[in-house]
Specification:
The chain is α+β, with helices and mostly antiparallel strands. Strand 12 and strand 13 form a beta hairpin. The radius of gyration is 23 Å and the shape is elongated.
Length: about 180
């Protein structure tokens, strides 16, 4: 387990306790004076716009529920600090030919991809609709019409709904806020 380079490791936690584990680990790093071996603790999240009760909300959604990333120099002392942090259940590891289990660090491109995903400037829109689903239009000129979702454009936050006018289905493009599920 002796390595001298700092690398990113994936730590398994109880799902839903990622932020608490991050806080506990950061306190342990300070109190046990291992800041020279454990550098960063990250809960990978991305902003997501969710529409609930007709309101847009930006929420931090965990990219990997049940996991946190820790940048550290792996040795007995640093691993002891991480392993004994409340809420930590293990580390992503692999078994070699001799049956020895070794922690597996993330590759640098993987880390860059995850960190870049977290820094995305435009939040993802959580799509609460699926094709073929019946929806009611709750805003705009077609208020109270019932239609069927035909297409979803998450990037623009738009949904195409087929609405029946005089016996013909007509596509209408609406904002996610203008429709609700039935």
């Amino acid at each position: 387990m002796e390595q001298n380079a700092k690398k990113w490791y994936v730590i398994h936690t109880y799902s839903g306790y990622e932020n608490r584990v991050k806080t506990n680990l950061e306190h342990r790093i300070k109190s046990m004076d291992v800041g020279d071996k454990i550098f960063q603790v990250v809960v990978p999240t991305e902003d997501e716009i969710e529409i609930r009760d007709g309101q847009r909300r930006t929420v931090a959604k965990k990219i990997f529920p049940g996991y946190i990333l820790v940048e550290m120099i792996m040795d007995e002392e640093s691993w002891h600090v991480v392993r004994n942090t409340p809420g930590v259940t293990g580390i992503v590891s692999a078994q070699d030919d001799k049956g020895k289990v070794e922690p597996v660090p993330l590759d640098e491109p993987e880390v860059k991809t995850i960190l870049k995903q977290m820094e995305a400037e435009t939040p993802r829109v959580k799509v609460g609709f699926s094709r073929g689903q019946s929806v009611r239009i709750i805003d705009g000129p077609f208020i109270d019409f019932i239609g069927v979702v035909d297409d979803i454009n998450a990037e623009k936050g738009k949904v195409k709904v087929l609405v029946s006018f005089f016996g013909r289905e007509t596509p209408v493009e609406l904002d996610f806020l203008q429709v609700e599920r039935l």
